[in-house]
Amino acid sequence: MTTAHEGGPAASHVRIPAASLKDLIETRLHMPFPFLSNPYEEQAAAGVDHWLRACGLTDDPSVATMIAHTRPAQLASYNGPTMDPDILQITANQIAYQFVFDDRAEEIGRRRPGRLMPMLCESVGILRDGRPPSTPLGAALADLRRQVMERCTPDQAERWAWAGREYVHGLLYEAVAQEDPEGPGIGLCTSIRSLIAGVEPFYPLCEAALPGELTPEELAHPAVRRLRRLSADAAVWIPDLFSAVKEQRLGGVINLALAYRREHRCSLEEGVILAVRRINDTIGEFERLFRETEPELSALGIGYVNGMAGWIRGCYYWSRGVPRYADTAAVPVGSLE
């Protein structure tokens, strides 16, 4: 059961004058997937609040405020409109956890990348070997691992853990890149962004939401692998557009729009436009490849790819309204350096 959005832009080929950076993004970004949301969103939001309190993560008032501004259950709902309540809850919990973990890693890594090592090694030990946690963040991750192992098949749980370890490693690369006063070029920025996007750990949950398990051959199909990459990139680059003002203010460097700004020595507005073009190309390739590959896929394979498309759609509609990126609507076009 899903609910359809009324009155929202589905595609953005029409060029109209843009008053703000948010307007600029919305009028130029190609979004072929309509808004959908999960009817269990409010239930998942309450579950996230309860889980974070039980883990002790919102004992810090700043974390509680951050969660209120990021709305993890809303993002899960938009990304997984057809997920059953159990999978939706795991997805929402993990989104909340990753926001807390990512913000903590960014804060520590900015001071000195080496200080991240205990935090990252604890996470890898939990994901790889099931080691007992020693911190509240580690305890939250261990509980997420338990949830995934109880709900997913062993192969799905292993894919989840592997993608999670890749995400953890990427945070160290991001911290090192932050030390370069010039910032990384577009190629290096997108490589790091693909690691720290944190999207691919959710694809095994998309699998688990299906009525059966995909075959290894279908998961390894070259086109399906390419679709995974395209969807993960588009899904994380879209929030980069809406977060560019915030990231520039805080000195962030791993952001597609800011990478184009540095590379071309242009204004932030021009950097956003260049990033939008790349995202449009990525979404266009995803659409074409899906159409071409669909006849070769099983019903489960088609459902899996639709789950990937859900992350592109969901990240867009969530980014447009989430308080975390409210600055984007407040900045007039033409005032951006």
TrEMBL record:
Give the EC class as a word: lyase
Task: Spell out the protein name for this chain.
Answer: (-)-alpha-amorphene synthase
Provide the species name: Streptomyces gibsoniae
Alphabetic keyword roster:
Lyase
Which Enzyme Commission number(s) are on file for it?
A: 4.2.3.162
One GO MF term attached to the UniProt entry: lyase activity
NCBIfam families attached here? amorph_syn (NF041563)
